Amino acid sequence: MDRRGLLRGAVVVGLGAAGASAALPAAAAPAIAAPSGPREPSLAPAPEAPSDAPAGTAAGVTLAAPTIASCDTWGAEAPRGTISTTSGRPNKILIHHMASANVTDYSQAAAYRIARDVQQWHFANGWVDSGQHLSVSRGGYVMEGRRGSLNGLRAGTHTVVGAHCPGQNSDAIGIENQGTYTNVAPPAQLWNSLVDLCAYICQQYDIAPTQIYGHRDFRATACPGDVLYSMLPQLRSEVAAALNGTSWSVTIDNTSSAFSASGNWLTSSYSSERYGSNYRYTTPAEVSDLATYRATIPSNGSYRVEAWFPGISGYNTSTPFIVYTGAGQSTVRVDQSTGGGAWLSLGTYSMTAGTRTVVAVSRWTGGSAYVVADAIRITRL
């Protein structure tokens, strides 16, 4: 059966054996993974370790286990057959996207519902259980996929044989990320949870951050989407920093509870260059009406501040971004008519520790073109 050949409801999953190389629409049918049992050889050779992140795990810090909902917690049915256990540790992580709708319901209930739906779709394919080891929802909830995966991860000595990528089902931990990331980035909640989860997996199994790959590295598939795949170097880097205890980073999207804006800031999903599901916009005005991003700066030090926004001709060419360091503030004016869909540095600042508004977007500028507030990233250097 073709990887995208089976539709199960309005939301679809994208685990897969073989897949199309074209971009996938949000309502594409689910990608099909191979069932447990004999595994066909990989269609692509194992790639060499990327050079964009430090190699090896570090012994400098011990990471706490992230919250992971077990199969029983999210209401899984019992497996419909025997799940095999590996004899040793996995040696890599494979990142997938579900090729499902980019829903805006970020609740725990929605996360558990997609986990149950995935299991039912995979039962319909004749598999004994969900194919992936772990799943991350758009709201950042992490869930066990195939039963036994969580116990293996906690032990750090073994895992169960998955069904997420033929040729890698015994060697790689498969992580499914809810949504479709062909043209948009994942929400900040998902991204932050994915970083924490990958770092914990690397710690438990002694996997180097360089061994984090995309599904397409081993199969002919569009998974995990062009945008998410392009973010894998950043993922490796942030995971390495978490393991080394030398860096810290937080991404705050406009959908986060750490974002605040008045009703004058309207919501749009018009541009595909947005971060996550939508962004906020408003007209210029000489009023104090800020869109703000709040964060907890963990310690005094040097931090890089970046902004993500859709760059559209006709958007404001001098949008004020205000950076609050704890000891003062600095205003950076950004041309939002171009250069969108990527992280733009607002500069590096010496910041003091504490919880506060760290960045704000102001309406106080000239012209009538919209000013935009989308996502902010703060990284300790």
UniProtKB/TrEMBL annotation:
Start and end residues of each Peptidoglycan recognition protein family domain: 66-219
Signal peptide: 1-22
Location of the region described as Disordered in the Swiss-Prot/TrEMBL record: 32-57
Matches recorded under Pfam families: Amidase_2, Golvesin_C
Positions with biased composition (Low complexity): 32-55
Alphabetized CDD domains for the sequence: CBM6-CBM35-CBM36_like_2, PGRP
Keyword vocabulary terms for this entry: Signal
Source organism, top-level taxon: Bacteria
Transmembrane annotation, as ranges: none
Domain N-acetylmuramoyl-L-alanine amidase: 78-225
Family classification: Belongs to the N-acetylmuramoyl-L-alanine amidase 2 family.
Protein name (Swiss-Prot/TrEMBL): N-acetylmuramoyl-L-alanine amidase
Organism: Myceligenerans pegani
